[in-house]
Specification:
The chain has two domains: about 5-60 and about 330-450, Aspartate Aminotransferase, domain 1, CATH 3.90.1150; about 105-315, 3-Layer(aba) Sandwich (Aspartate Aminotransferase, domain 2), CATH 3.40.640. The strands form four sheets. The chain has a six-stranded mixed sheet. The protein has 16 helices and 13 strands. Helix 13 (about 325-350) runs parallel beside helix 16 and helix 14 (about 375-385) crosses helix 15. The protein has helices at about 5-10, 10-15, 30-35, 65-75, 85-95, 115-125, 140-155, 205-220, 245-250, 255, 290-300, 305-315, 325-350, 375-385, 390-400, 430-450, and strands at about 45-50, 135-140, 160, 185, 220-225, 260-265, 280-285, 355-360, 365-370, 370, 405, 405, 420-425. It is an alpha/beta fold and about 450 residues long.
Length: about 450
């Protein structure tokens, strides 16, 4: 349509780099057809360690989140005496904010106003800085918000990119551009440059964040921060620092000038509710004219999925001490996070026992990004197949073990180094087998190509 075509064209820079290199994508796995036809393989299942899908890896849903969602989708359950009253109260409150008191109705394009208010209160508690519901846009996960915002800020003929967008969103490597005329700067800051970082799983220091903000201020850049892993901090002495909090603690001129968009999602953290597709974007110091265009583009997409908005509300406004659901909620949340912390340590220990594999401490998020040494014959074999060396390794790994990981070349890495990214989400027992199997394959691979 005349309305949609310009929007889609404006998104083309984003769409073109979502899958920029031939990486191993989450689904479908190229081996599935062979497995279903009974072609013999030296494994019985494909382990999709390439994507952060917690519940696909066996993580149990958080009870309160699912109870409220179930109540909203099937209000007849409100008569069920086994469901806690605080979950019922939340469901009634959310249904009252929906058209026709139904979760099946369209909501306002930026999301249910009640949920936006709860997000604003969550941000104010987290950062100690005022947050306005009008600056918050609910979304179909963080990735959708990033694409929508990109459709606004990339319009015009003088857009300057300060990064090399790669899998799946962007890098921090600043590369000056000599475009003439007025320039809209975009500072790519998410995935492996967010806090914690993906795929390198390092937690950024406050000083590092201050340096990023100063850089954005000096270069007049729009700052985008993906903070979906803010709950996933494992290393002792590490802590999450939101960009908004640091920005305002730095004070003028930074807090008055730097334009910032931050993103959060129900897909990561302790929630792992990837399939519900819920999240939000908060904009700070955004030019009013640009914000107006953002609201227009959001309206074209009608509204985010209502179940995702419901889950988001339970995340930003969880049970409080004294509530019937509080003890179970806290126990389940801590169980998930402590399990991830244990698996982070396990991953580092097992990989570093294998000569040629180097794995830094997994400080946060839910991935590891080991560096692997590859012999010259492997590099030559990869070149003969027109593949990046780590892609060649990952495909061999998949074909021989059924373990699916992502090559480091899909993210960008230092010249002459090779990596792969894998999730730490499988159950502990299964993860240990996976790590040992992968390490054994690497040793065999190196011997074969030495």
């Amino acid at each position: 349509s005349p309305v949609l075509v310009p929007c889609l064209l404006s998104l083309s820079p984003f769409l073109s780099f979502l899958i920029p290199v031939p990486i191993i994508v989450p689904c479908p796995c190229p081996l599935f057809p062979f497995l279903s036809r009974g072609v013999p393989k030296p494994f019985t299942e494909v382990i999709k360690a390439n994507i952060g899908d917690a519940q696909a890896m066996g993580q149990k849903p958080i009870t309160f989140l699912r109870q409220v969602t179930a109540l909203c989708l099937y209000p007849e359950l409100l008569a069920n005496p086994s469901i806690p009253e605080d979950a019922k109260d939340r469901a009634r409150r959310l249904l009252a904010a929906c058209g026709g008191h139904s979760a099946g109705a369209y909501t306002a394009s930026p999301g249910i106003e009640l949920v936006r208010q709860d997000v604003a209160r969550f941000l104010q508690r987290r950062d100690g800085v005022t947050a306005e519901p009008g600056d918050i846009f609910l979304s179909t996960g963080a990735s959708d918000a990033i694409v929508v915002l990109g459709g606004v800020v990339t319009q015009g003929t003088h857009t300057r990119w300060t990064g090399t967008p790669q899998y799946p969103t962007g890098t921090r490597a600043a590369t000056p551009n000599t475009l003439p005329g007025p320039v809209l700067g975009l500072y790519w800051y998410w995935e492996w440059d967010h806090d914690p970082q993906n795929p390198t799983r390092q937690v950024q220091s406050r000083q590092c964040i201050e340096d990023v903000i100063k850089f954005a201020y000096e270069e007049k850049l729009f700052l985008m921060a993906d903070e979906v892993y803010q709950d996933n901090i494992y290393a002792e002495g590490s802590a999450f620092h939101s960009f908004k909090k640091v920005l305002f603690e730095m004070g003028p001129p930074y807090s008055e000038v730097v334009e910032l968009a931050s993103f959060h999602s129900i897909s990561k953290g302790f929630m792992g509710e990837c399939g519900f597709r819920g999240g939000y974007m908060e904009v700070v110091n955004m030019d009013p004219a640009v914000k107006q265009q953002l609201a227009k583009l959001v309206s074209v997409r009608l509204c985010p999925p209502v179940p995702g908005q419901i889950v988001l509300d339970t995340v930003v406004s969880p049970p409080q001490p004294g509530d019937p659901s509080y003890d179970l909620f806290m126990a389940e949340k801590q169980a998930v996070l402590s399990s991830l912390a244990h698996k982070a340590r396990l991953t580092q220990e097992i990989f570093n026992r294998t000569p040629g594999i180097h794995c830094n401490p997994v400080q946060g998020a839910m991935y590891s990004f080991p560096r692997i040494e590859l012999p010259p014959r492997a590099l030559a074999a990869a070149k003969a197949q027109d593949q990046a060396p780590d892609m060649f390794f990952c495909m061999k790994l998949l074909e021989e073990t059924g373990i699916c990981v992502v090559p480091g070349s899909g993210f960008g890495q230092r010249e002459g180094t090779f990596h792969f990214r894998m999730t730490i989400l499988p159950p502990t027992e299964k993860l240990q087998v996976l790590l040992e199997k992968l390490s054994s394959f690497y040793t065999k691979f190196v011997k074969e190509y030495s």
